[in-house]
Amino acid sequence: MSSLPAPSPPVTLETQPFWDAAAAGRLVLPRCDACTTVIWYPRAFCPACGSTAVCWIDAAGTGTVYSCTVVRKGQGAYREAAPYVVAYVELDEGPRMMTNVVGCDPDAVSIGMRVEVTFDATDKGTALPRFRPVGS
């Protein structure tokens, strides 16, 4: 678990499978049965083709830092956590997820860095997916 705050996310009927899997330490993603697009953010339809034939797949949990920034002055619950990294991670399955990179010096995070998922438990029984450098 990282030292970042772990606020409980809003859970809806559409996102419930994602948050249930995250609480169990698994990363799952919706995939369109019609066009095979892997979808992020979880929803009941495909943003690429409009199909409602969407299923859940187990994701590898690995990806590459696509973009990142180091926050040096946090706000609210994150005020005491600074510095920390906010990043877009391009998952090996294709979509990009906004997240945090943890488990290393924030200044060591760079575009192209290989990362793997880790989960931070919330106080409401869910868990937030965050990423750390592969092998750390």
How are the SSEs placed, and which strands pair?
Layout: H1 16-23, E1 28-32, E2 54-58, E3 62-71, E4 84-91, E5 96-101, E6 114-121, E7 127-133
Characterization of the model:
There is one protein chain. Helices cover 6% and strands 36% of the residues. By secondary structure, the chain is mainly beta. The protein has one domain (16-133): OB fold (Dihydrolipoamide Acetyltransferase, E2P). The strands form 2 sheets. The chain has a 5-stranded antiparallel β-sheet with strand order 5-4-3-6-7. A two-stranded antiparallel sheet has the order 1-2. A hairpin with a 5-residue loop joins β6 (114-121) and β7. The two termini are 13 Å apart.
Write a compact overview of the structure shown.
The chain has 136 residues and is mostly beta strands. Helices cover 6% and strands 36% of the residues.
